Amino acid sequence: MNQAVNGRGHLNMEKKIGLESLKRNTDFLRINHIDFYILDYSIENRLSNEEYSSVWRTVKELLPYNSFFLEMGLSRAAVILPEKSAEEAGRLLDATIETAGKGEGFTAVFQGKVCRDITEDLELEGITYEKSVDPELISIHEETETASFEKNLRLSILDDDEVIRMFLGDQLDAVDWGEWAVDLQVYREGESFLNSGRLQEEGKHIIVLDGIMPRMDGMEVLSEIRKKYSEKEVSIIMLTSRNRENDIVSALEAGAFDYVTKPFKINELIARIKRVAKRMENVDD
């Protein structure tokens, strides 16, 4: 009896954590005027743990690269689809259900729907958002002549949130950085970044650094970097949900050049990165 209660409690906690992550990531897309749909999946028949895992693994394999998959217990999952039409979302929902429902030796009975926004139960609300892009900050994918660059800029994104990593990677890769030849890399956590040899690469470095990450948090990464590199060599912009005055002051005193709190607007972050690059451009080597 206690075991069953504990099991339900664990699943309820997984659903709660999944919904919180879903809200956080859709809020991020919304504040940046990025349209999205949500695919809501539930499996109606009872399967073994291995069969549930097999179903969700198949679903994830069929999703586009910029989608975000969230499990909310064994039998429930949601997928955020940025920049897709309702028709595309519907076709993807049908395709994933048809393929993932046919396992080896079992069948998963799915219920699925396309949602426009979320409530606690992921109900379809029919809300639409206008997508707006600032043409001066974000370029359309166009072929341009290769320019002759003299300055190398290493731009690194450290964030454990998959949606933010993919979004920043896409948006920052499209920015016109002027005379800087920008090499953009993204990392999930600080330890792998510090061990990657990235900071030994030639050129100036700008790091957009999340405050809360697994294994090493942002302040620990900041401290390790400042033991070896000055602001002239490596400039750091904190990008974090920690918004208390003490957190901001501590980061700036520890060597961060700027501090941006989540949720954030992409155009503002781009402007801040450009300001840092301009300052580094005026610093004599």
TrEMBL record:
Cited CDD domains: REC_OmpR
Task: Classify the source by domain of life.
Answer: Bacteria
Report the residues modified as 4-aspartylphosphate: 210
Question: What Pfam families does the annotation carry?
Answer: Response_reg
Q: Where is the Response regulatory domain?
A: 154-277
Tell me which species this is from: Rossellomorea aquimaris
**Name listed for the protein in its UniProt record:** Response regulator
Annotated GO CC locations = cytosol; protein-DNA complex
Which terms are listed as keywords in the entry?
Answer: DNA-binding, Phosphoprotein, Transcription, Transcription regulation, Two-component regulatory system
Set out the biological process GO terms recorded for this chain's protein: regulation of DNA-templated transcription
